[in-house]
Structures are given as structure tokens and as C-alpha cells.
Amino acid sequence: MKRSSSIISVLLFAVISTVNSCPPSDRAALLAFKAALHEPYLGIFESWTGTDCCHNWYGVSCDTESKRVAEINLRGESKDLFERAGRYGFMTGYISSEICKLTRLSSITVSDWEGISGEIPKCIASLPFLSILDLNGNKITGEIPADIGKLQRLTVLNVADNQISGSIPASLTNLSDLMHLDLRNNKISGPIPITFGRLRMLSRALLSGNSITGPIPASVCLIYRLADLDLSLNQITGEIPSCLGKMAVLATLNLDCNKITGGLPSTLLNSAVGNLNLSRNALQGKIPDDFGPRSYFTVLDLSHNFLKGPIPKSLSSASYIGHLDVSFNHLCGRIPAGAPFDHLEASSFMYNDCLCGKPLRAC
Ligand SMILES: *[C@@H]1O[C@H](CO)[C@@H](O)[C@H](O)[C@H]1NC(C)=O
Ligand SMILES: *[C@@H]1O[C@H](CO)[C@@H](O)[C@H](O)[C@H]1NC(C)=O
User: Fold this and answer.
1) What residues does the Leucine-rich repeat-containing N-terminal plant-type domain cover (predicted)?
2) What confidence score (pLDDT) does residue 88 get?
3) Residue 131 Cβ contacting ligand 2 at under 6 Å
């Protein structure tokens, strides 16, 4: 009698502890994920012991109802780690495809470890609940999985500062919930998909520092919420679509260091854009005389192009010009006077054909 009751209590205990802890299959997948990584300084994986991976495993969180692993959040530059260890982390190894067995994952952040290499497991594209994928700041190679577009709940895709190659997959523009796309500083080549404008929820598109070729698709202007478009330091050709200047909330437009030709669209000078860098392209023609009270620029950098003609008089009617750079063009004529110019230095205007007047020599 006594014996059987103790067996029952043991069984009961086993049942209760399985109910409260993560499923053994999730635990096994986490341990296999960990086995492919090596983190020598902080010892974050030392906390990955015991049966309940939902409890006190550093960076692991579970869904409160299903008890399935919902988040992996490991940041090499996390403040919390820094406070504990007094240094930022470093990790080598690769992201094991075992991670794809965690089919309830909604968020994967394995960022700023500098040393993680290998490829993004292709199976990541079949995690049905994935909303955040942040692998920023590692040494990841290979391509963005071709069927990334299957991640219908993805809102954040950040693989910046890695060594990712290949082109932007056509399926990416199927990510109808995507809000934040950061592919900066990789080795991505090929064009921006012509259907880019299908990313209707996108607010930040950061593609700077790659080898992207081809034109800026005009469909970008359909992205009503786009606030920040950074295509700088690529090999982009063609003209600047003038519809960019008609976008409701586009505030930052960085197209510097590309091979963009054609004229400077007048729409851009009197738009929501307040941070405009078009430096180091092959823009031709005159600066349109279309500044006005809506022109409010913290940065307006048109340097290193082939612009000619005068600096338009309407620039005096701009509400604000914080930093202006028109150096290294073929501009000529009197620099207009007015409040927006009072603080500007000669370097803003140097290396043109024949500009004159304050702050350069008198005309
Ligand atoms: C985008 O999604 C649609 C509908 O799910 C699918 O038919 C199409 O093949 C997808 N496009 C790409 C390029 O994956
Ligand atoms: C504009 O882009 C150029 C080239 O990338 C860069 O050197 C410059 O600092 C940028 N201008 C501003 C004001 O940030």
C-alpha cells in the first residue's frame, strides 16, 4: 500500500513536471542548436541545464500556454551580458538547422557575436510563426533562403553586417507584413526586385553597402509607410524616380555612392525628405528652382556629381538647411543670400566651375 502510493506520487510528480516544463523535443533541439556554437568568454550556455528549458535558460522564452519555445534572444552586445561580464561577447560556430525543430518560434535573435559563420539554415523559411529574424553582426555566408517569402508573419528581417551573397530572392516581396528590412554591409548582388513595392508595411529599407545593380524600381513609391530608404554604396544605375518626392512619410533618402544618372527630380526639393544624400553619383542638369517653405533639410548632400548652372534662388525660401554640400560639381554664379545660408562654410561650395559670393570670394 505504502509502496504503491509512493509510486503514484512519483508518477504524479513526473506528470506535473512535464506539464510545467518545455517539451523534451524542444529541449533536445535547443541542445543541438547549442552544440554547434562556441561561446568561450561569458558562459551563457552554462545556464542551459536541467529539464525545463523554459526556466532560466539564458535567452530562451516559451509561450505561456503551449510551453513551446517561442523566442531565442542572444545578443553579443546585450547590456545585460555586458553588466555581468564587463565585456561584449564573442561566439563562433554556426546556426544549426536543428533550430527549425522549434516550430513555435516567433523570434530568433542571434546578433552581434562577430564570429558566427556558416549559412542561414534554409529550413528557417518554414517556421510558420516566425516574426523576427535578426542575425545582424556575424560572419554568415551563403544566400538569403530562396523561399523566405513563405514567412508570412515576418515583420523584421535583419541580416546586416555579414557576408551574405547572392541576390535578393524574388519571394522576399511576398512578405506582406515586413516592416523592417536591413541587409546592409553584405555582398548582395543583382537588382532590387521590380515588385519591391508589394512590401506595403515596410517602413525601413536599408540595403546600403552591397553590390546591388540595376535601377530603383518605381514601385518603391507605392510603399506608403516607407520612412527610410538607404541604397547607398551600391552599383545602382538609372534615374531617381520622381515619385520618391511625393511619398507621404519618406524622411531619409540615401542614394550616395552609386551610378545614378539623369536629373535631380524637383519633387525631392519640396517634399517630406529631410535627409537627402545623393553624393557621388552621375547626376546631370541644373538644380531645379523648386525649393520652398516645405524644404526642411538637416542634410542636403549633392556633392560629387555633374550638376551645372546656378544654385537656385528659391533655396533662400527653404525653412531650414542644416548641412548643405554642393562641392565637386560644375555650378556657376552667385550664391544666394538668406537665412538658410548664414552658417554655411566655404567647403560646402568648393570645387565648382565659377560659384561666387559669400562664403566664397566676391562676384
Ligand atoms: C508569392 O506568394 C504567392 C501566393 O502565396 C505564390 O503563388 C507565389 O509563388 C509567391 N511568389 C514567389 C516568388 O515565391
Ligand atoms: C553623403 O554620402 C557620402 C558618400 O557616401 C559621404 O561621404 C558623406 O559623408 C555623406 N554626407 C553626409 C552629410 O552624411
Assistant:
1) 24-63
2) 80
3) no
